[in-house]
Design goal:
The chain is of the alpha/beta class and about 270 residues long. It has two domains: about 130 residues, serine acetyltransferase, domain 1, CATH 1.10.3130.10; about 120 residues, UDP N-Acetylglucosamine Acyltransferase, domain 1 (3 Solenoid), CATH 2.160.10. The chain has eleven helices and 15 strands. The chain has a six-stranded mixed sheet.
């Protein structure tokens, strides 16, 4: 068994670490043994574990866990990018969220991570032309996690959504790689137009709690949006914006705001 675990850790370091942490979690808290075994240790790959976790969370009287798990298994089997992105999201959460001390935590407990993985399956379904199923995933994710991401939105790797209450990401929104956002963030439109109407968030952006970015505007790479801001105009790269409406108040303060997670304007701008 130890030799098998070592091989897994070598081939898939993120999954190997999750397995190791799960085994320790069972020893530390035997009452969680059943949950940890069913969610993690029972599975040979991270793809199967993700499919199980998503289906368990989203199942209801209208769609059984078994059917949802088959859908998720199909998605992970067809598109390797889904699980690669999930691994990057786990590492991002561990590195940026001071409340995350193990890779295991996002898989089991963090609804921001789980909601993003549900979106990734919904996005695969949408791209495959299975739009009604994609909308079912969106609906259940909104009901279960309080996170409403349109399945047509484009979201990159290494995403960390902390707390994840009341997140809204619209149909034509684009979120780059290594983006961090806090609760109550909206990437929305400004009217009833049906064309490209939602924000384009660059790589390495940090979006503070309660911020609203509205309209088909770009937030440049490695910029910061202060908590509670309402962004209606383009944001240059490597800048900090704040206020209602938001305006540029200084530099971003560091090369990678989404990783440093520094929200203070006075010290970093």
């Amino acid at each position: 068994m130890a030799e098998t675990r070592a091989k897994i850790a070598q081939l898939d370091p993120v999954w190997g670490r999750i397995i190791s942490e799960a085994e320790q979690a069972v020893l530390d808290e035997p009452l969680l043994g059943g949950m940890v075994h069913y969610s993690i240790l029972h599975h040979q790959t991270i793809e199967r574990a993700l499919a199980y976790r998503i289906s368990l969370k989203l199942a209801n009287g209208e769609m059984s866990e078994q059917i949802l798990r088959e859908i998720c298994d199909e998605a992970y089997g067809a598109d390797a990018e889904l699980a690669l992105a999930a691994r990057a999201d786990i590492v991002a959460t561990y590195e940026r969220d001071p409340a995350c001390h193990r890779f295991l935590q996002p898989m089991l407990f963090f609804k921001g991570f789980q909601a993003v993985q549900s979106y990734r399956v919904a996005n695969w379904l949408y791209r495959e032309g299975r739009k009604d199923l994609a909308f079912f995933f969106q609906m259940r994710s909104s009901e279960v996690f309080g996170v409403d991401i349109h399945p047509a939105a484009h979201i990159g790797r290494g995403i960390m959504i902390d707390h994840a209450h009341s997140i809204v990401i619209g149909e034509t929104a684009v979120v780059g790689d290594n983006v961090s956002m806090l609760h109550s963030v909206t990437l929305g439109g400004t009217g009833k137009e049906e064309e490209d109407r939602h924000p384009k968030i660059g790589n390495g952006v940090l979006i503070g709690a309660g911020a609203k970015v509205l309209g088909n505007i770009r937030v440049g790479d490695c910029s910061r949006v202060a908590a509670g801001s309402v962004v209606l105009d383009e944001v240059p790269s490597c800048k900090t914006v704040a206020g209602v409406p938001a305006r540029v108040v200084g530099e971003a303060g560091c090369a990678q705001p989404s990783i440093s997670m520094d929200h203070l304007i006075s010290g970093g701008a």
